[in-house]
């Protein structure tokens, strides 16, 4: 084995290498006993020294941040929890009193379930199994009562449904929140509503009507995707492009075309064109360079193993930074649960 | 319920057969550990109910970072069963529950630090944006 501290060992430990025919050093290998000369025992202090979070961009519903100095096992746990284990409120039970529209009851119920509901899930409890009624602490009630009619003021020769009919499109804005118990005092008006008011639920024609009552409950994405709080949550590793030798002239232009725009810059040095890596972060890691024989040994493509570029896109129920915090708390909750149970089992 | 559990455990121990430890909390079993006959406490399979790769892989990483652990791994028994078999074998005489407990504690500490750092960075970003607005 190569000597400790040598380049080859360092590369194995810290980079995922993109080769012509495959990806090398994919798995984490820095465990105690694997590398002579390295102490890979868990060290909280060392971790705290290396760990960094840099927020790159945050909007109302999206968040992009870098998490540096952490292992895939943990980063992936956070991502998985964001997708499947951070709770939200969603329509779970639909009571259909009347539905004369063309859309069937079960399809309608499914569509209603997928509508994101603006309500802070942290203020609610999970509904107990078998409970059909629900109370103010575990249920939100919505009503959808709408009937389509002819527009008496429509011109005779019109063929535009928007002009001919009234209420022929049912949107989420037609859903009325019905407070249960003390909910009217707890939440201000318009605090509880669908996130978007312009989601089309159904289309009606004159004489058709909907009369529905909906119960929203708290749930997690593992149970049904409608409870997932994110539109998507993903991460990628930071790309690293190294030019092993200076690449000049026409080759520099060809090299530039192999990468995403903005990754390679061609500079003019004393009348010579020289390629330079401007921003490797923008690269999609396509490995296009390996189709060019001349670049195979001049460029090294890799990804930094412990640099995660997270992107979290919320459905609008909670801000994306709150979702991430909640996800971390969920993982802590899991650990605490098993620690408590261990204590219980070892008491006697 | 608790009495029943204790009885089960005692009789299993006396039989010297499979030694099954079932912890019972609020009627739902969330955790049990299974040990085969003839082996010692240094090789234990913990059955974690209602868990998957999320906790399994994160915890495996933390426990494998412990030099006293010879082997640590997990498997999902079957796609339709929501539980994992989490195996720990230690070097020397150390009972496998010790690294298991330590792994959970360390994972908690890591999460706490990640949470603090994340919230700090978010606050910094928000403050910076606010200053730019003014």
UniProtKB/TrEMBL annotation, chain A:
One of its GO terms (cellular component) is RNA polymerase I complex. SMART domains: RPOLD. GO terms for biological process: DNA-templated transcription. Residues 62-341 form the DNA-directed RNA polymerase RpoA/D/Rpb3-type domain. It holds the Pfam family RNA_pol_L. SUPFAM superfamilies: Insert subdomain of RNA polymerase alpha subunit (SSF56553), RBP11-like subunits of RNA polymerase (SSF55257). Belongs to the archaeal Rpo3/eukaryotic RPB3 RNA polymerase subunit family. This is DNA-directed RNA polymerases I and III subunit RPAC1. The lineage of its organism: Eukaryota, Metazoa, Chordata, Craniata, Vertebrata. The gene is POLR1C.
TrEMBL record, chain B:
One of its GO terms (biological process) is transcription elongation by RNA polymerase I. One of its GO terms (cellular component) is RNA polymerase I complex. One of its GO terms (molecular function) is DNA binding. InterPro entries: RBP11-like, RBP11-like_dimer, RNA_pol_Rpb11_13-16kDa_CS, RNAP_AC19, Rpo11-like. PROSITE patterns: RNA_POL_L_13KD. Residues 43-116 form the DNA-directed RNA polymerase RBP11-like dimerisation domain. CDD domains: RNAP_I_III_AC19. Keywords: DNA-directed RNA polymerase, Nucleus, Transcription. It is found in: Nucleus. Belongs to the archaeal Rpo11/eukaryotic RPB11/RPC19 RNA polymerase subunit family. This is DNA-directed RNA polymerases I and III subunit RPAC2. It comes from Geotrypetes seraphini.
